[in-house]
Write a structure and sequence with these properties.
Chain lengths: 236, 276
């Protein structure tokens, strides 16, 4: 059984269907990139996978012991976070919230997890720093550490490199690759950057109100649609 | 000095003012941190205007002020959250809409009934004499609820304030907590507004959070510091009000302004030394 299986899913706002007839699945260890233009329904799909938006029809099924609230989500950054007074440690630790239930406090094991994830992402020494004083890349690493605290199986990244400079972007992609390969955590990344997507991902989901393509990155490169979009990317 | 203090506390109304004041200051500071960070500062101001309308209505109907004001303001708070969540009308304009409407209703009710008198003046700018035994009981109850909320659900409140989407994705019922915070804010405002004044009560929500954020760099320290600053400012403010015979609300706000300036200065000095 796959981690996530979408069966004939349609999602919309107030009667207006945004995406329809989605069929795809994500298995353990996959690295799926969701690509498509603005308004093609990528973010809407992400919200539905997270359970923040109900589907109009069809079903999103979770398997392999994955629960909906155990997805490691890296959202796009909000305005609120720009001047938020919180230490990196506090932010990362808040990723453990889904394992708390009704118990109000974090255990030593939770704190241990938070430090471990910071270690993996190379931000251990920033733990006491204030989140608002970090650089863009460091902020993303802190939020990624939080996402890792929330999951053992699946990371869901919503345009994670927006606003990062090319070097930091490359480092970030490398980090994601490493996590995917070394810990076997499946990765779903929404991205504008088709070129890098094809390079890193094992699978591609190309959306344009419906599924234009779903399959391995290799097949995507050979497909007509893939050639058109990648070719377009090179000309630009 | 000590004499003045004892003398001051020999009046029952002063004891009540201190009791309600410190508890309201404590609650509003805690709730205020979340509201300010989520860009909901104006909700306090909006709700106090609704409270003014409700008090005017209560006076006209000749019923106990709190029995009208608390339900009305609580409903307004929930309504404000719903409207800004629905995003048809944006949050800031929704607040302005509701607050000016209720102010207008209040003024109309007053003008056709009692006319502008000292009561109305007290609603606007507050009176240190306004607190009753019932207010003391209610504020104790309110602060117990707020403290329990912040003690047991602190981690969830942090998560919702920092990143509501992430919190929801990990199974936190953000809507429930937002509503709870709005309702508690409503009750805090109704309790505090007759002492602080409808026009000034929102300062208790906003000042302590902003003051602490000048210096504190973790969420926990901001919360603790806000509560402390808020209570200290209130006690000093009320004392000033008693000694100098100035209005209570305005005195408390003046002390809060002073605290903000001191914290801003400390923050600026520290940043300069840190080379930023």
């Amino acid at each position: 059984m796959a981690l996530i299986k979408c069966e004939n899913v349609s999602i919309g706002y107030e009667g207006q269907t945004v995406v329809k007839d989605l069929n795809f699945e994500i298995s353990t260890g996959d690295y799926l990139c969701i690509v498509g233009e603005n308004g093609s329904g990528k973010s809407t799909l992400v919200k539905s996978i997270l359970g923040l938006k109900a589907v109009e029809s069809g079903a999103i099924l979770f398997g392999d012991g994955l629960k909906q609230n155990e997805i490691g989500y890296l959202p796009q950054q909000t305005d609120v976070q720009k001047d938020f007074p919180a230490s990196v440690y506090e932010v990362v630790l808040s990723g453990r919230l889904n394992s708390r239930g009704f118990r109000p406090f974090y255990t030593a094991a939770d704190k241990q997890q938070a430090y471990e994830k910071m270690e993996i992402l190379g931000i251990r020494d920033l733990a006491r720093q204030c989140f608002r004083d970090l650089s863009g890349g460091q902020k993303q690493r802190a939020l990624l550490a939080r996402a890792l605290c929330a999951t053992k199986k699946l990371l869901l990244l919503d345009e994670p490199v927006t606003g990062l400079d090319p070097i930091v972007t490359a480092e970030f992609y490398q980090l994601i690759r490493r996590i995917n390969r070394e810990s076997g955590i499946a990765v779903v990344m929404v991205s504008h950057d088709i070129e890098s997507a094809v390079e890193d991902a094992s699978h591609i989901l190309h959306l344009q109100e419906k599924v234009l393509f779903f399959g391995t990155a290799e097949d995507y490169r050979k497909s007509r649609i893939g050639k058109t979009f990648l070719g377009g990317g090179q000309n630009a | 000095m000590l004499d003045t203090l004892f003398h001051m506390l020999s009046y029952p109304f002063m004891v009540r003012a201190f009791a309600v004041g410190t508890l309201v200051a404590l609650c509003s500071a805690l709730l205020g941190v979340s509201l300010v960070l989520k860009r909901y500062s104006m909700i306090g101001d909006g709700l106090s205007h609704v409270g003014f309308g409700a008090l005017a209505l209560a006076a006209a109907l000749n019923v106990a002020p709190l029995t009208v004001a608390i339900p009305v303001v609580v409903v307004a708070a929930v309504l404000l959250l719903r409207i800004s969540g629905g995003s048809r009308i944006k949050g800031d304009s929704a607040i302005a809409l509701i607050s000016t409407s209720s102010l207008a209703v209040g003024v109309m009710v007053i003008s056709v009934t009692t006319g502008m008198n000292t009561d109305v003046y007290n609603y606007m700018f507050g009176s240190i004499l306004a607190m009753s035994e019932e207010d003391v009981r209610l504020s104790v109850l309110l602060s117990v609820i707020v403290l329990v909320l912040f003690f047991f659900f602190y981690q969830k409140i942090f998560a919702i304030t920092f990143d509501e989407t992430f919190a929801q994705a990990t199974g936190v019922r953000a809507g429930l907590y937002n509503t709870l915070i709005a309702v508690l804010t409503a009750v805090t405002i109704v309790l505090g507004m007759r002492m602080m004044g409808a026009l000034l009560i929102s300062s208790l929500i906003i000042f302590p959070a902003l003051t602490s954020m000048r210096v504190c760099r973790t969420f926990k320290s901001v919360i603790v510091n806000s509560a402390a600053v808020s209570v200290v400012c209130l006690v000093v403010g009320i004392t000033v009000s008693y000694v100098c015979a100035t209005p209570a609300g305005a005195s408390v706000v003046m002390v809060n302004i002073a605290a903000l300036c001191v914290y801003a200065l400390v923050g600026a000095l520290r940043n300069r030394r840190g080379g930023k």
